[in-house]
Amino acid sequence: MITAGIDIGSITAKAALIEDNRLLGTRLQFTGYNAQKAGKSVLEELIAQSGVQREQIALVVSTGYGRNSVDFADKAITEITCHGAGAHFIDPETRFVIDVGGQDSKVIKIDAAGKVLDFAMNDKCAAGTGRFLEVMARAMEADLDDFGEISARADNPASISSICTVFAESEVISLISKGETRENMIAGIHESVASRISAMARRVGVTDPVMMTGGVARNPGVVRALEKKLGVEIRVSAHAQLNGAIGAALLAARMQQAV
Amino acid sequence: MAENEKKHDPEKEKRKIQAVSRMKEIMTDYYIEAKGAREKGRKVAWITSGGPVEPLIAMDVIPVYPENHGAMIGASKMGAQLCEQAEEMGYSRDLCSYARADIGDAVAKTGPIGGLPEPDMLVCCNNICGTVLKWYETAARFFNVPLFILDTPFIHREFTDSARKYVLAQIYEYISFLETHCGRKMDYERMEEVGRLSVEATQLWQSVLDTCAHKPAPMTAFDAFFHLALIVTLRGTQVTVDYYRQLLDELNDRIDRGIAMVPNEKYRLLWDNLPVWYRTRWLSDKFAGHDAALVADTYTSAWSGMLPEMNGQSFLEAMSETYTKVYINISIDRMFDIVAGMIQKYDVDGMVMHSNRSCKPYSLGQYDLRQMIMDRLGVPTLIIEADMVDERNFSESQIDTRIDAFMETLKS
Amino acid sequence: MNPLDRFKSVWNDPNDYARKRKQQTGRKILGYFCSYAPEELIHAAGLWPFRLLGTKGEIRMADTHLQSYCCSLVRGGLEAALNGSLDFLDGAVFPHTCDSIQRLSDIWRLNAGFAHHFDAVLPVRLDTPSARQYMIDVLNEFRQELADAFGTEISDDAVWQAIGDYNRIREKLSTLYELRSRAPGLFDPSTVHRIMTAAMVMERREFSEQITAFLEGVEPDAAGRSDTGRKRVVLSGGICTHPDIYELLARAGADVVWDDLCTGARYFEGRIAEDGTDPLAALADRYMERTVCPAKHQDITVRGRALVDMVRHQQAGGVIFLLLKFCDPHAFDYPYLKKFLDEAGIPSLLLEIEEQPPPEGQLMTRFETFVDMLA
Predict the structure, then answer these.
(1) Which chain B residues touch A120 with a CB distance below 8 Å?
(2) What is the CATH number of domain B10-187?
(3) Alpha-carbon distance values, C358 to A104, C324, C352 (Å)
(4) What torsion, rounded to 10 degrees, do the Cα atoms B261, B262, B267, B272 define?
(5) Which of A77, A209, B388, C156 is buried most, with the most CB atoms less than 10 Å from its CB?
(6) How far away is chain B from the Cα of A200, in angstroms, using its nearest Cα?
(7) C-alpha torsion angle, residues A212, A215, A216, A217 (rounded to 10)
(8) ipTM exceeding 0.85, yes/no
(9) Mean pLDDT computed over every residue of chain C
(10) Where are chain C's structural domains?
């Protein structure tokens, strides 16, 4: 039996196919302004690339902020529940998931079966999200993709103390004018993101092992800073951005079996 | 705590207040004594900064001030880190940073003195805010120790007879609370003696602040923030009386010798609200750079405002009124009267208000107070947005620009 | 208009209702912000107590007087006073709630320009005989001030009468809550919320008639509507002014079956004894005995125990905390309340609310996940 999961995020749309508890294929593309269209096209492309027929797909579960826009999905499930299931599939030892995406960050505590025990999400403030990193990259006229590598060379991370993204941006600008190195500034920015997320994680209570997912998990600078703050090793999901979609496909399979 | 050291500049050396070292000695001894209380079989009580400490001194209980500790954490720039600790425990980051930092340190014990000595009892007076009530309830659950609350009704218009009766009844409830938890009776003669020393220290503190009415001022509010610690923590003791006498002599001597704290004092400013503890030096230099001296403030003078009108009453009777009428337990219009008096007394050119995210009873109402000061007294007033301990709420570039712009208008 | 439509229209625009009704009845209106405002005395004076719940509109004028770190209830309340939307008020009473409302009283008195202003500075501690005596004294002073201000007399008999009226209203509200708890499907998800708002703002005689008629019209468990198949949750916090929360929760699969909100169950909790000799002592005793608002002091674990008991008694699966951003008393209690729930194995969800609730998408994500978590 084949099931599909579709995760419509604020920036990217992801899809995954699962057959008999095995990952059949995944796809990622930009969401654009039309979430409904993105959901449809990401699944069509994935079907084409994996060589399965649409009729073979027994059930589709959508997730992510645009989950209710996917009108052909059989059910919409929140990305928190899906991330729990996805992380459990990728690494069954996982008991805690940190998911940092473009506009949301979440921490999720799961049990041995991947079921959510507790969770927390950022408030509407952008600190501690991918958006914060984007704003800072713009202030520094740097490429976000290079952030992780550059920060690894920092000798003394700058202190970015402001919580507010707007204040933090002006802090970065004043550090630039004081001649602080790029390495230290970027490392400081990573620590700032990490401290917001670690506070949220501790409120829920971190349980080892920890997996990180979401687009920001691809930034090793943030991962390192988080490991330091939380004092635990973080396993970055091999499918960091696809975790939600994989979880959705798995939950679809589970639903189908239950019927 | 001011940061008076660093670099040897003979001009600066001359302006340093000598009593500072004595003050540090006293505070060090005091914390060592408090930390060793348990071994010596003495009781420790945590008490709020506006709370009646005199009965504790009379009962030989060591008073410990979480707020003073909060200030120390701020001055040591450990505020953000300890506040985060409390936030991880579920305390909102919008809560008072003294409370957050102290709650964080009670668990982490990584603050400047490695954690406050644990309390045997808690004494909370809500004359400064409702926050202390919640904070002390938290502490009472955490340490599992008895809590006494002195409820001092807010004065919107007048101190009513029913409020007086209520507070006085509580003063006696407070004493029986202490008697129960110390296992002995209050010595009322000793109590009156402690009261006498407290009044004397308070008068001396007022005289210390009054020296700044002199032009140029022999010290500034930044010094007052530092020297305040004793009148908060140990009023009612001989050592405090002696210390303020020494400080007063030194300040009078500075006046005689023409030593000013700000070398070319041209502008005299009045500060409102708690200090920005982690930036006192930066702010002090910033204003001095504009030849401006903060000659007075509403914060440190709140303790001299606690001078009781004895009118033949016993100290305990006088106390109920004194503790209820403190500066931030009164309405905005009553605050204005006090500020107007200070503006006149210290001949002030402008006012600087710290809008302090941590302190709602002090900060909410500042916009109206500012308007009253500008409209009725014509005194220019600047508001800066910050926080007393949590440096994450301080934007240097923003405040820098605001102060420069304000000083430009004063100069023009 | 049937009672439910009446409640809904009042909820929709309480100010418009007050303006029109005032014209019809000529009754003077006194605004208040807190469940410790002695409404019975206001009612006994022939006035009509009107609960102020902030503003649904944008906050602009209040920003001249209040910093951004002040809660939206206080900022919104001041906004409404300054922008003229409360022009029907004859004044307001401030019973000293918290640091913010205490300052709001000053700012209101200095700027809002209503004919009357009262401060009834009630005690903060509610656990000693001296506090009880002081509360009685303050209530007496307020009674006198009210009488002087409006040129009436407020006799003991009038206060007893008002106490009786209020007891009846509170009993009805309690019945309403019991009905919903037993059969959540009897009402639309936000109906009880709307009725509670109406209870606090409507002219009380009219409300009393309407709620009586409404309850008589309820057919208990008609066609098995009681079972919605949804999970049961309890709300905890201060005020809630967002009916959407109930609708969204229902969509996510949960019914609110009880709460400890001051605009909810705490409003009707506690009956006033009618057989005493001093009516003000009777009023004081309800305040002394009712579960406290976190801005007041009583036993330091009473709120935690009461919350756990409520969840068990209501057979609810979890608790949703609605914390108004910048509300210090509630924010201070949250960690310990959560700990009590954790220890009792009761899941909870924290929601910080401002003048607007979080964006619907984010809210649904949280609600759906939380409902999935519930047993």
Answers:
(1) none
(2) 3.40.50.11890
(3) 13, 12, 8
(4) -60
(5) B388
(6) 6
(7) 30
(8) yes
(9) 94
(10) 3-154, 159-373
